[in-house]
Design brief:
This protein is of the alpha/beta class. It is 52% helix and 15% strand. It contains 12 helices and 11 strands. A hairpin with a 2-residue loop joins strand 10 and strand 11 (291-292). Helix 1 (12-21) runs parallel beside helix 5 (119-125) and helix 7 (161-189) packs parallel to helix 12.
Length: 293
């Protein structure tokens, strides 16, 4: 298929590379040049990348970035033709997603929100899980591309429902990890080594996919970004905005948002979201490997 792939960040670059490996014709654009995967055609703008594309795939940072890529001065809207499918793997506002889809439907363009889970490792290994919303016929047309980048697709309903489900998923990830980080901090202050605590966690009902994935990085004190704290902070805010729209109170997530705000202010925004542990350790005066956190 002829694909325009827009956004070559931590997730986007390996996703685009996997499309190229699968034999698709891929034109790429990124705000910052120099990240293009081998075998892709480099475009000077989103509009140029979208020329002649059957599918426009977007993977950028936030709602405003998606809007700019779609409708900005060099956005793809001018290059779209009837029958084009847009798939958005950014995590953005569900209500904005619906508004974008309605505007593009007037041009005969179908819009499928396709946020994913699996982190950097999943993007590189083509094992992502896609959480999608949109017409079944459009999703069916995209299946060869999903297969090149991931292992499963979950259709949640019409356009916007994929983003809604992704926010519900990230809400849980943020809360689960924060519980793990607080447990490690308290255990350390009570004299329990993490090396002794982890086997207990793994053998009990406390175990979770979030902890299993993050624990090796935390134990190695590797807080390099698989999923940057600033982006999880953005997703937390999106979830809270969506909750306000439907008059739902999320007190646990509101508290976690405060922690992310303070972690960002403490200089951890570009580290992995697991770096909220560093803030907790600092508050508690926990010493790590002979140094004060």
């Amino acid at each position: 298929m002829r694909v325009a792939f827009l956004g070559l960040g931590i997730m986007g670059r390996p996703m685009a590379a996997n499309l190229v490996k699968a034999g698709h014709s891929v034109a790429v654009w990124n705000r910052t040049p120099g990240k293009e995967p081998e075998g892709a055609t480099v475009a000077a703008s989103p509009a140029e990348a979208a020329e002649g594309a059957e599918v426009v795939w977007i993977c950028v940072s936030d709602t405003a970035a998606v809007e700019g890529v779609l409708f900005g001065t060099s956005g793809v809207e001018r290059s779209l033709r009837e029958g084009t499918i847009i798939a958005d793997s950014s995590t953005i506002s569900p209500s904005a997603t619906r508004a974008f889809a309605e505007r593009l439907a007037q041009k005969g363009v179908r819009y499928v929100d396709s946020p994913m889970t699996g982190s950097k490792a999943g993007a590189e290994a083509a094992t992502l899980v896609f959480i999608v919303g949109g017409e079944e016929s459009a999703i069916e047309s995209l299946k060869p591309l999903y297969a090149a980048m991931g292992k499963k697709i979950f259709r949640m309903g019409e356009t916007g429902k994929g983003q809604s489900a992704k926010l519900a998923m990230n809400l849980q990830i943020a809360l689960i990890y924060e519980g793990f980080a607080e447990a490690l901090t308290l255990a350390a202050k009570l004299g329990i080594d993490a090396e002794n605590l982890m086997p207990l966690i793994e053998a009990s009902m406390v175990r979770s996919g979030v902890v299993e994935y993050k624990a090796p990085f935390v134990m190695a004190r590797d807080f390099s970004a698989n999923f940057p704290l600033r982006l999880m902070r953005k997703d937390i805010r999106l979830a809270l905005e969506a909750a306000r729209e439907v008059r739902v109170k999320l007190p646990g997530l509101e508290t976690v948002e405060d922690i992310y705000d303070m972690a960002a202010e403490d200089g951890h925004a570009d580290l992995d979201y697991a770096a909220t542990l560093l803030l907790l350790e600092k508050w508690a005066g926990v010493e790590v490997k002979g140094q004060a956190a």
